[in-house]
Write a structure and sequence with these properties.
2 copies of one chain form a homodimer. Chain A is mostly helical. The first copy, chain A, has 2 domains: 68 residues, Winged helix-like DNA-binding domain superfamily/Winged helix DNA-binding domain (Arc Repressor Mutant, subunit A, Orthogonal Bundle), CATH 1.10.10.10; 154 residues, Four Helix Bundle (Hemerythrin (Met), subunit A) (Up-down Bundle). In chain A, 68% of the residues lie in helices and 3% in strands. Chain A has a two-stranded antiparallel ribbon. Chain A binds a DNA duplex through helix 3.
Chain lengths: 234, 234
Amino acid sequence: MKNYELVLHRVEADLAAGRLRIGGRLPGERTLAEQLGISRPSVREAVRVLEAMGVVRTATGSGPEAGAVIVAEPVSPLTAVLRLHLATNHLPMSDVVQTRILLESWSAREAAGRAPGLDAAELKVADDLLDRMDADGLSPEEFHLLDAEFHVALSGLAGNVLIAAVMASLRSAIHGYVLAAVPNLPDWEAMAVTLRGEHRAIVAAIRAGEPESAAELVTAHIRGFYQAAQLQTP
Amino acid sequence: MKNYELVLHRVEADLAAGRLRIGGRLPGERTLAEQLGISRPSVREAVRVLEAMGVVRTATGSGPEAGAVIVAEPVSPLTAVLRLHLATNHLPMSDVVQTRILLESWSAREAAGRAPGLDAAELKVADDLLDRMDADGLSPEEFHLLDAEFHVALSGLAGNVLIAAVMASLRSAIHGYVLAAVPNLPDWEAMAVTLRGEHRAIVAAIRAGEPESAAELVTAHIRGFYQAAQLQTP
DNA sequence: GCTATGCTGTGGTCCGACCACACGATCAGG
DNA sequence: CCTGATCGTGTGGTCGGACCACAGCATAGC
């Protein structure tokens, strides 16, 4: 067992046992090193891994925000894993897109199924994003960033934090890919108009509590864009 | 920008540009440190992160297997992220189970849809696993390990490496949870018989090319177990 | 020709030091 | 008494250097 793994196991056990909670802080690196009988560099390697896993956030200085604070940020590690493995070319982008369609259509169906419920505030967030996307003079970059935010917000309506986190990371990883394909579109302005209309229709279907309609609209929405941009669709 | 991030960006760029390939090796830690003008501890922190992300595998000694070898192992990092975030209690197990049902039912539907195709070898793997699960005297531990392998193999039939990887990590993270619930079952032996039969039926539906049937069988199979074990089901 | 022995380069670990930073206590001035 | 600047202290960030264990390979000896 490598020394830095001692720290990882210790932290995971402390988390599971409730000795460490979100918002709490890890002991200082020097303290941790002494407690476990290892050196500070070994502790630091472990803290780096925890940071990459989205479990701690480190900052210098003093005060409540300084040190290694326990957080729960699953999106960034998932994004990093996705990006790195896409870079190795052992993870086809088409699989990522296919996964996106699956998760988003499911989320829309689920959200519509619980429509009478508590989504009012979150639906408002989605509406606001759509309003901002109506602004004139948005660059493709800005538009697609808002688009990504909208889709992530949609997936959050289903109430499954794991699926929402995976969706957010998928969308981050896809973003560059989408932007690179914009020049393939014969008429980006026209496409933007189409996308805006489809967005409104999706939200309307969810609000109306029509699961199957919402799911189909989402699927068609995503597929349509990828086909228009001449990207491979699964 | 922290120094170790220099290494991460460098490696990601090298991967994307094809300068680093699976099976290749990272430059030595000392070399990398000199090239980037940073210290070896900083390089080591980055290598640890890459290792945690499933992109490199380190080993001491010399020869082709030593050093930091580029690999593509997405399952272990996903499992680690899942385990850690489950430990923080900010990721409900019910969401994990719900995700599992979604991915597995989709995989079964997809696999059945492409049944006439090339799955022969992979279907055989699933069959072999089921044969091994028929052995007498299997402990719940052994049985559920084989069960997990079977479900992961099933999700691989759909041909989406991302979904297969996520499923494998979900199953790893769930395993302890499932085992802890076995004592809740009124009659584990009877449950094992039921599960075996359902497994066979699922494979049969896929082989017969019946997507909807396969998906429903999988959903019922998973839901049935969780309900019998008195675990919360979404 | 075969075996044993070192040599070499790899990661693994540690130590000690210094820096930048941010908070909070302390002290000087009003 | 209040307000302000100042310094102390503890945090992570970085560095250089050193030594170890390990595995393969070249070499010397048989």
